[in-house]
């Protein structure tokens, strides 16, 4: 049965009216009713046709309809709010290639979601899988950090290869993700995204297009995992170094690097700077990826030889330090095997 030949389905506006659904503040719901904008998002994702697509947070289903009309091969939608289930199920009766999951994306594992035959070697072109979503900002940012970790370990949706992603973020966050060296927005998030992925800010959606309108504009960002990460060290170690180095992003990088060590060991910061041939007075946001790579490796070398350094977190309580030490030490040891 060809879905295109079926009679037109309800518009998002009609669905919201029919099911008497109002946006819930606690789920930060802002709906896209403008189908031109919805189709622009789907077009900007590019790789949809004949792909297995996962849509997170379909809500009343605007993007869902556009994905199905763009001839994706199969669509799985994952929605937390049960009020949208009847409308999504109705769409599911029209389109046979759609699965609906009522659940929380933050607890959902995509490891076995797709057919085995879609698996492609990491170094070849991305598999025909795409994850797409207009999620609330309080979900999309922690989620991308979790997924970047999954990308670095090639697990979950990335056990199938270099699965593409297209997601929305608050404009300022989206701009940080793609920020080039020495730009005002360059920060820890820029480095974490760019060290693992090709990141592209497709376009900005004015906040006023959403219903209800959020106070901020929204950026649509696409990610394609890199064949080789820019920094070949465990995710947690790289994340820790970035967090500390960018703690004082506008100040001399020496200050940020120092925060990796207790005060009595600040000489390690000088050792790192010297070993990496980095000018200590350069502000952190002007450090290149190559320089940050050198800093991470020099720090890793110190952690391997000096017990306890890895667990040092200048903001953590003593108990938190012990837990962190156990977690990160096991990762460092794992590198040697
Ligand atoms: N995609 C729709 C659109 O563009 O109009 C809705 C967007 S609205 C910003 C975000 C959607 O994500 C809502 O439907 C909300 O219920 C859903 N959502 C929020 N948190 C979620 C979670 N943890 N897991 C799955 N869906 C979630």
What does the model show?
The protein is 39% helix and 15% strand. Strand 5 (129-133), helix 5 (137-153) and strand 6 form a beta-alpha-beta unit. It has 337 residues and is an alpha/beta fold. The strands form two sheets. A seven-stranded mixed beta sheet has the order 4-3-2-5-6-9-7, with helices on both faces. The protein binds S-adenosylmethionine. S-adenosylmethionine (SAM) binds at residues 27, 29-32, 56-59, 62-63, 78-81, 104-106, 134-136, 139. Residues 27, 29-32, 56-59, 62-63, 78-81, 104-106, 134-136, 139 line the site of S-adenosylmethionine.
- Name the beta content range: 5-15%
- The overall pLDDT average reads 90
Bound molecules: S-adenosylmethionine
Computed Rg = 22 Å
Question: Termini, distance in Å?
Answer: 53 Å
Structural class: alpha/beta
Give the CA-based shape.
elongated
Spatial strand order of the main sheet:
4-3-2-5-6-9-7
Helix content: 25-40%
Total helices: the number is 12
Which consecutive residue ranges, at least 5 long each, have pLDDT under 50?
A: 1-5
Largest sheet: 7 strands, mixed
What layout of secondary structure does this protein have?
Blueprint lengths: L11 H7 L12 E2 L2 H11 L6 E5 L5 H8 L4 E6 L5 H10 L3 E5 L26 E5 L3 H17 L10 E7 H7 L10 H9 E9 L4 E2 L6 E8 L9 H11 L7 H6 L8 H9 L13 H17 L12 H18 L2
Parallel strand pairs: 2-3, 2-5, 3-4, 5-6
Antiparallel strand pairs: 1-8, 6-9, 7-9
Helix pairs in contact: 2-3, 7-8, 8-11, 10-11
The structure holds S-adenosylmethionine (SAM).
């Amino acid at each position: 049965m060809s879905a295109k030949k079926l009679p037109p389905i309800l518009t998002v506006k009609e669905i919201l009216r029919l099911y008497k659904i109002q946006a819930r503040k606690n789920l930060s719901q802002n709906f896209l009713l403008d189908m031109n904008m919805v189709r622009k998002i789907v077009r900007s994702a590019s790789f949809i046709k004949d792909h297995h697509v996962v849509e997170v947070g379909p809500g009343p289903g605007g993007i869902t309809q556009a994905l199905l009309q763009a001839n994706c091969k199969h669509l799985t939608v994952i929605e937390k709010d049960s009020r949208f289930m009847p409308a999504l199920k109705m769409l599911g009766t029209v389109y046979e290639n759609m699965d609906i999951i009522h659940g929380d994306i933050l607890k959902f594992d995509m490891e076995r979601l797709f057919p085995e035959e879609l698996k492609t070697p990491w170094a070849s072109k991305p598999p025909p899988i795409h994850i797409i979503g207009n999620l609330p900002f309080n979900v999309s940012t922690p989620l991308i950090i979790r997924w970047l970790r999954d990308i670095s370990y090639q697990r979950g949706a990335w056990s199938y290869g270099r699965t593409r992603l297209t997601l929305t973020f608050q404009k300022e966050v989206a701009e940080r993700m793609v920020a080039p060296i020495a730009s005002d927005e360059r920060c820890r998030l820029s480095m974490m995204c760019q060290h693992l992925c090709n990141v592209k800010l497709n376009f900005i959606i004015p906040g006023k297009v959403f219903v209800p309108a959020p106070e901020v504009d929204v950026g649509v960002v696409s990610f394609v995992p890199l064949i080789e990460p820019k920094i070949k060290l465990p995710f947690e170690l790289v994340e820790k170094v970035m967090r500390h180095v960018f703690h004082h992003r506008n100040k001399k990088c020496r200050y940020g690097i120092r925060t990796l060590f207790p005060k009595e060991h600040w000489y390690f910061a000088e050792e790192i700077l010297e070993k990496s041939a980095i000018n200590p007075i350069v502000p952190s946001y002007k450090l290149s990826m190559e320089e940050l790579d050198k800093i991470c490796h020099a720090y890793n070398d110190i952690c391997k030889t000096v017990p306890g350094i890895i667990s040092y977190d200048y903001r953590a309580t003593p108990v938190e330090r012990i837990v962190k030490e156990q977690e990160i030490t096991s990762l460092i040891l794992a590198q040697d095997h």
